[in-house]
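Why this split exists: single-chain examples teach little about how molecules sit against one another. For that reason, every record in the complexes split bundles all components of an assembly together and asks for one structure covering all of them. Below is a record exactly as it appears in the raw files.
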Amino acid sequence: MSESAEKNSSSAEPVSKAVVSRLSLYLRELQHLVRDGRETTSSSELGALLGVTDAQIRKDLANFGQFGYPGIGYRPDELIAAIKRILGTDQHWHAALVGAGNLGRALLGYKGFRQQGFRLVAVFDNDASKIGTRIEDVPVYPMDRLPEIARDHTIRLGIVAVPAAAAQEVADRLVQAGVEGILNFAPVTIRLPKTVQQVGVDLAIELEQLSFAVVRCGQSG
Amino acid sequence: MSESAEKNSSSAEPVSKAVVSRLSLYLRELQHLVRDGRETTSSSELGALLGVTDAQIRKDLANFGQFGYPGIGYRPDELIAAIKRILGTDQHWHAALVGAGNLGRALLGYKGFRQQGFRLVAVFDNDASKIGTRIEDVPVYPMDRLPEIARDHTIRLGIVAVPAAAAQEVADRLVQAGVEGILNFAPVTIRLPKTVQQVGVDLAIELEQLSFAVVRCGQSG
């Protein structure tokens, strides 16, 4: 009997985006603990470090199975392996970035991707002055080489970092090149076949989350 | 009687991050509709445009009150005003950006912020070669001028775009300068007083959401 009565372990029922985001946070904190040489931890300790309740942590994990040992807690290295399996980051993912502007450059310089198993193997841009160069040691190609490079490098994910007006066309071309998922930074909703997954990152939405929290917490108690 | 029996309108009970994110998406799509000259819409139409169910839209809005007209649907301009009030973006927010690297530059060039009522009024960086310059017409200051500039420009939000190792110290200084909320791009959990709100943007977490979706949808039906 788990704490969350409605959930069965390891089923493929929908899990909310919030749960998946928290798994990523747990993973980060567990990686810190392992780096510090820790061999056990608990939902209370993780919760205190992350500002969530221990019940929330246990409930989130219960969506995916049974973890931890009675009287001991969790072994960080085992829980890291389990969460990576859940998130799919126990495998390595090759991704293509489209758009070598400031945002694209920031993404190429971002060390967090590789730490979590994502590798940006190619950049695509229409700017002739960029094509043939390398940014953060990643080669820049013209868009028309996307199908060939995607095939040769087993690229499974595409990252869209182009202006809004170009996002749908770029997404269509990524789909044609066989990617299974698209991370979209353009502030538009792009339409994709049901077989291709999409996560949209609209940076203004993040700021709206923040203004919402500030306004709401200012109003109430 | 609303569709979601547990919810009362306009109460300050916790609303999930997922609901708030969807409000932002509704806002974007309504803004498109107004730009196209549309005077009415419906939860079915919005849902079809955004790939969510009409029931979800009605349920999300019911957290915050009663919207729309029987037999007519929603008036986009009215619903835009209501959602902006909920998100706090009916007011203008001045924000300070800390970190003028590639990510900082990308954020400064990002048009979506201003469209939604956020204005980056100052950039702070320790690099002497950047101080005194302007990036996207926003002046770059040294960190020690933060308290003064924050006061003079009524800066209420801080955006942290510095390496992980510097993030906590930068956040502490933003708190001392009186910001009410922090948007954190560094891939670490920062600790803040309870009175200061935080939204963390870890770009690898977004990719983990995507790999999770790809792996999960590949496994099941």
